[in-house]
Design goal:
The chain is an all-alpha fold. Helix content is 76%, strand content 3%. α7 packs across α8.
Length: 275
């Protein structure tokens, strides 16, 4: 399993880096849309849509929302969606951090997560596209966000393995610990500061803001992971899919990015930083 994970990562990471840095904005939007539509297919199954026709209909709805956002939505409408998604993810994260020992029951149909998917998947796709499009630095900042999330995830894993004693949400994700989350937050803050230095934001106030934005982004990335874990456990599933050997499905790999990307760009925008 570990070997499969490593091989898959060695194949995917260079492709992702190349795609983010070298793709024109429109091609990046298309590639990201395909990835998020694959997530939508997995999400439809997890939330209880067993019929292929139901899942196809769900996917068409997501695609239609993305097309509207791309071709017809005003800048104000796009901003409202991203900020709304960021607020929803902050609320979900706070609720799941407080979940603790409350039991979960398996269910056949999960309408609330299904409805959330129609909003949160297009919003995450939109946030990444807008970030990529935002400035000449946009592709590098988009990759910086991904590196921030990868660093936080890796640091949380290794810190939790070495020092973890206190469970974060044992019912939702038994492997996550408070110590692991703390390690992930430290890594995220460091990457966030480095990213802002790359952007030429070297003042003390800017670096403090960078650390705060990175910490919030990393916290919500954990919330995204916990949210997916909750939906999977209620569905009686271990993974969202089987497309990536050793990793599970697409959603399993980018759950943190789905939750954190609207928060990251909303925090940048509300803080007044020009990227």
């Amino acid at each position: 399993m570990l070997l499969q994970r490593v091989i898959t990562a060695l194949v995917l990471v260079p492709l992702v880096v190349w795609g983010v840095l070298k793709s024109p904005h429109d091609l990046f939007a298309l590639i990201a849309a395909v990835v998020f539509l694959l997530c939508g297919w997995e999400w439809a199954r997890l939330t209880g849509m067993r019929s292929i026709f139901a899942r196809a209909g769900y996917l068409l709805l997501i695609a239609a929302i993305m097309a509207w956002l791309y071709f017809n939505a005003t800048v104000q409408q796009q901003d409202i969606l991203v900020i709304a998604a960021a607020g929803i993810w902050c609320g979900i994260t706070a609720a799941l951090f407080l979940w603790r020992q409350r039991p979960l029951q398996q269910v056949g149909w999960q309408p609330v997560p299904a409805a959330f998917g129609l909003l949160l998947l297009p919003a995450a796709w939109l946030a990444l596209w807008l970030l990529h499009l935002s400035s000449p630095n946009g592709p590098a900042i988009t990759l910086g966000l991904m590196v921030l999330i990868w660093s936080a995830d890796s640091a949380a894993y290794f810190t939790g393995k070495a020092l973890g004693k206190h469970k974060l949400a044992p019912v939702l994700s038994p492997g996550k610990t408070l110590e692991g989350v703390a390690g992930g937050l430290v890594a995220a803050a460091v990457v966030g500061i480095l990213l802002f230095l790359f952007l030429g934001q070297g003042s003390a106030a800017s670096l403090v803001a960078a650390a705060c934005i990175a910490l919030l982004t990393a916290l919500v990335s954990v919330g995204g992971d916990l949210f997916e874990s909750m939906v999977k456990r209620r569905a009686g599933e271990k993974d969202s899919g089987k497309l990536l050997p050793g990793h599970g499905g697409i959603w399993d790999r980018i759950d943190s990015l789905i939750s954190s990307s609207p928060v990251f760009i909303a925090a940048l925008s509300l803080s007044g930083f020009a990227v």
